[in-house]
Structures are given as C-alpha cells and as structure tokens.
Hints:
Layout: E1 5-6, H1 17-25, H2 37-50, E2 54-58, H3 61-72, E3 78-82, H4 86-89, H5 94-99, E4 102-106, H6 115-123, E5 132-138, H7 151-161, E6 166-169, H8 173-180, H9 184-188, E7 193-197, E8 208-212, H10 214-226, H11 235-247, H12 252-269, E9 284-288, H13 292-301, E10 304-305, E11 307-310, E12 313-317, H14 324-335
Amino acid sequence: MTRHVDLRSDTVTQPTPEMREAMSQAIVGDDGFGDDPTVKALEERFAEIVGKDAALFVPSGVMANQIAVRILTRPGDVIVAGKGQHVVSFEMGASARNASVQFALVDDSSGELRLDDVMDVVEAEKDHQVAVSMVEIENTHMTSGGTPWDLAHLSALARALGDKPIHMDGARLFNASVATGASPRDIAASATTVMACLSKGLCAPVGSLLAGPAELMRAARVERKRLGGAMRQVGILAAAGLVALDTMVERLADDHARARHLAGLFAAAFPESHYDPSSCRTNIVAFDHPQARQIVHELVQRGVWGDTIAPRRVRFVTHAGVSDEDLDFVADVLAHFTPAP
Ligand SMILES: *Cc1c(COP(=O)(O)O)cnc(C)c1O
C-alpha cells in the first residue's frame, strides 16, 4: 500500500502495549451484579477527576450523551444546544428517538453558545413558549475545530441558568484541559453531568464515562440497561481505560502542537478558505472550502486521509498515530497540491 497518514479522526488510535497487558491481567466480575472491581475503580477514578459524586462506564460517547438526555429531560422537553454539536447533528436523531425531546438550536460557530442566545430561548417560557429543561454544550467543540470553552463564559452561563442543568459533552474533555491548563474538575464544575471518551485521543479501544450527582447516576444506571449498554466482565475494557487516564492525557499536548503545525500547512495550501491557523487550539483542523468533498477525495488519493463534516467543511485530526515524519509527508503533498478544476 502506498504511504498514507490517517487524519480522519482520533478514534482510529490503537490501544497501547500497556493497555493490552492491563487487559490481559484485569480482575473482572459480572458488572450487572456490580461485581467488577476494575469497572468500579475506573468509575471512581473518573468521578474523582471531574469532581462529581459518581460515574458510569458506557460503551460509547453517544450512549453517554443519550443517557444524559434521558435523565435530565421528560418527553416533549426542549434542550438548548449548538447547531453543530454531536448530540444534534451526529447521533442519527437519537435524542428524538430515545427521549422524545426537541432541540432549540443556537449558533455555535465560535465553539461556544452565546449567553444571550441561550437565555432568549429560556426566557421565552414567559411568552407562552415551551420550557427548556437543559442546555447541552460541547467541550472541546468539534465542528468549530476542537475549540475549548472559556471557563468564565461557561460559569456565567451556568449562573444565568440557575437550577437548569448543563450537560457537558466532553468527548474531548482532556484535550480541553491540556490546551487551557484548567483541571477537568474546574472545567466540569459548571456542568451537572459530564461525559468523556476514552476511545479517542486517549487510545483506549472502547468506552466512555458519564459522571454527575449520585441520584442522577443511579437513574443513569437504569437508562444504560434500558438502552442495552449494561455489560458483564467489562473490566477487560475498563483496565485499558485506567491506563488511558494514567498515561495518555499529557501527551495530548503533542497532538495539539502537530495540529497547529498542520493548520499552518492547510491555511497556506488553501488561501481561498480564509482559514486562520491560530483558531486551531487542540487536535482538530477544520475549515470551509467550496470544493470540500473534492479536495478530501484528491488528498486521500495522495495519502493524506481526512474527511468532510458538512458539505463544504473539511476536517483533519491529529492523534497518537501521527508522527513528525507524517507531518513532513503531509507538507510535501500539500506543497504540490492543486485540486483539479
Ligand atoms: C465522538 C464524539 C461523541 C461520540 O462518541 P462515540 O464514542 O463515537 O459514540 C460525542 N460527542 C463528540 C463531541 C464526539 O466527538
């Protein structure tokens, strides 16, 4: 096969040798009976890291978001969220199907939701409009290019919302932490519930975690079962997750530095996109291009694998499988690249 660099997603990462070792040694039990000590250790560890009472290990980030929606809403409720968020655009309409809720969408092209936009929806309750039961935010925010939230903005939003809960889709919570220097606990402080993926930049093969107040997490356990996400000797997977939390967080800084470098290369190669490489603050390069599908197709043929996330938006993601030599290869491809007219 010709050389290629896989920048489609940080989900393509492979488990590390230490993870495979930990998986082979893991002490396991039937987690349906609460008998798996490795799962318990992982859940306690994550709850501690994000400063919540309890946590739940789930098969995927989508399931973590879906459980959050089910425990924080009732059928017919409204969730305020950004148009580009995963829960809105990349979960196959799951929230409507699983929880019978609807979204009130606000602009999130900057990566954040503006306080006024959110509060306009919330306050419309006084104008005979439907009550909002929760707000969901994404940190880092994928479609804007992996943007971390400003914590002052987030806590101002939480204050304005009073007792309306925020669910934080922190699929890349640890990227946000490494990029901003804020602890996961501080980042999650304004959120009632928070989820994070172990299977992206942290390289675990499977799994995400949802954390929040004890009572809600008891309800979350029921919803996990209802959605078919309760597993048995799943300490095999949790063991890899513990290694991910222990060994793979700090190295995300390397992914961020490489993404920033790539951002400069793409900005130079596609000036017509007006992409500002300084907007790349974590591990995602994303920009608009009128021929997005075509350039992705042609770059794939030249060994630079990326993807489109909207008809005119391309995305390239760095991760543990991307080296400095890979960036040299990308630089070389881009230096000689002009899309066919
Ligand atoms: C990947 C992702 C998810 C879902 O995670 P899966 O494990 O793929 O189900 C949710 N939210 C965001 C922002 C993501 O990037």
